[in-house]
């Protein structure tokens, strides 16, 4: 992971994949650390797509080793843009990217992203030192324990060509210190948004005696759904545990009889006992190869509406139709946007700074990580990117470990609660609340047009 030290005078930084609230904070941490080291930071516009463009649009983020004013860690998104374009090393794209990096005269490159970004970064590491600063609201970039990739096995598929991958977990129980990359920047803010959404939808469910199904992001990982427990939903369904529809129906009936409303949180990648993904009956894929889910909440709505007879609702909701008794809501892209809360801002900046330190120390093809222990709290560290890969070279999304979820209660387990408390107990800062009080209903918002950072950044763009 660490090679002979190279002089770092000019480094590049890019953001790839989906946006998260903490990208600017990560860039800010990297630039501030570079300022103290006398290193110039070049922001590459629109991620890997920018390196494939012959013009190579870029911005100097710290002229005279001073951060540009547009770089605000409190703003969501990324001031240098992002894309879901990834480098295919089997094509002539790699030669174009290599030439672009040479024309920019970079001594190193920081890529901010998730597992798709690591895969895009690896071929670049053959000709320029590269490190990754992690980001993803899904919190799925990391490991439950260090040797977890070696527990993945492959078996031949019997119904179609190819193979089936399965994790044969060798660790039925975890300690908090075992977790590699404990929480990724963006996750805390996503949970903050989801918890508020669940609380607000509860009012509607209670007032109208309805069942509300709230769908959250996360793909095959249930960390956002797990964190939604802060909004106090009655039931939480995560992709890691197949849903027993009979058991779910029984629990919904019991809760509805008791309190005349039910709120269910469902992760978008949830499966039934037969292995079918509720939200991907006709899957399509993004450029990173990830399934785009079409609606787990809607599918669950149909299942419950078919199984629970109309009379069950109409005896309570008299003079109203049974079909209106269940409603669904997707939290959607609001999970990925807006101002990051304090936890994300602080640790994203720390990880950005750590990425610069790693390049200076001679790291290549490595990842900055956030670690936790009860004794030391949160600290930044690093890991070889290959440690995340299984024996076939694949990186798997980190899943919620079985010890974190109580599948009978459909809620976080005691250990899952301990995990969440370490992140969220002090995740919101006083300045977060003050910002909301002072800025949301500022009279100036009525008369002043939104000032997009893209407008100011376009004035700074340069081309090779």
From TrEMBL:
Coiled coil: none
Superkingdom in the source lineage: Bacteria
Cofactor: Mg(2+)
Keywords: Cytoplasm, Glycolysis, Kinase, Magnesium, Metal-binding, Transferase
Biological processes, Gene Ontology terms: canonical glycolysis; fructose 1,6-bisphosphate metabolic process; fructose 6-phosphate metabolic process
GO molecular function: 6-phosphofructokinase activity; AMP binding; ATP binding; fructose-6-phosphate binding; identical protein binding; metal ion binding; monosaccharide binding
Annotated protein name in UniProt: 6-phosphofructokinase
């Amino acid at each position: 992971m660490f090679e002979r030290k190279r002089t770092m005078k000019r480094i590049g930084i890019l953001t790839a994949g989906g946006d998260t609230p903490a990208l600017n904070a990560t860039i800010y941490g990297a630039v501030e650390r570079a300022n103290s080291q006398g290193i110039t930071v070049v922001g590459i516009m629109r991620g890997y797509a920018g390196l494939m463009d012959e013009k190579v649009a870029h911005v100097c983020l710290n002229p005279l080793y001073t951060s540009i004013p547009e770089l605000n860690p409190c703003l969501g998104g990324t001031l240098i843009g992002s894309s879901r374009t990834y480098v295919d090393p089997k094509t002539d794209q790699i030669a174009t990217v290599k030439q672009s990096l040479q024309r920019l005269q970079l001594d190193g490159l920081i890529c901010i992203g998730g597992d798709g970004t690591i895969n895009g970064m690896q071929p670049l590491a053959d000709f320029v030192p590269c490190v990754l600063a992690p980001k993803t609201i899904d919190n799925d970039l990391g490991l439950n324990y260090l040797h977890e990739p070696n527990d993945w096995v492959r078996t031949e598929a019997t119904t179609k060509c190819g193979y089936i991958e399965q994790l044969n977990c060798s660790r039925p129980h975890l300690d908090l210190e075992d977790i590699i990359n404990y929480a990724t920047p963006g996750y805390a803010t996503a949970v903050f948004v989801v918890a508020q959404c669940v609380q607000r939808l509860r009012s509607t469910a209670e007032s109208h005696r309805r069942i509300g199904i709230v769908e959250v992001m996360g793909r095959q990982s249930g960390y956002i759904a797990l964190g939604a427990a802060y909004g106090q939903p009655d039931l939480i369904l995560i992709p890691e545990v197949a849903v027993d529809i009979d058991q779910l129906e029984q629990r919904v009936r019991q809760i509805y009889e008791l309190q005349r409303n039910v709120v269910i949180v469902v992760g978008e990648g949830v499966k039934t006992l037969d292995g079918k993904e509720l939200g991907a009956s006709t899957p399509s894929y993004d450029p990173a190869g990830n399934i785009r889910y079409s609606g787990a909440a809607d599918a669950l709505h149909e299942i419950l509406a078919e199984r629970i007879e109309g009379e069950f609702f109409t005896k309570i909701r008299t003079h109203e139709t049974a079909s209106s008794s269940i409603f669904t809501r997707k939290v959607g892209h609001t999970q990925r946007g807006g101002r990051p809360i304090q936890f994300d801002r602080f640790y994203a900046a720390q990880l950005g700074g750590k990425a610069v330190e790693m390049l200076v120390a001679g790291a290549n093809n490595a990842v900055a990580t956030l670690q936790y222990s009860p004794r030391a709290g949160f600290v930044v560290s690093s890991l070889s990117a290959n440690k995340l890969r299984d024996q076939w070279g694949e990186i798997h999304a980190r899943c919620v470990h079985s010890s974190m979820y109580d599948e009978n209660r459909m809620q976080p387990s005691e250990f899952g609660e301990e995990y969440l408390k370490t992140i969220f107990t002090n995740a919101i800062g006083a300045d977060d609340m003050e910002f909301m009080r002072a800025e949301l209903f500022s009279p100036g918002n009525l008369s002043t047009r939104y000032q997009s950072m893209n407008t100011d950044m376009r004035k700074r763009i340069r081309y090779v």
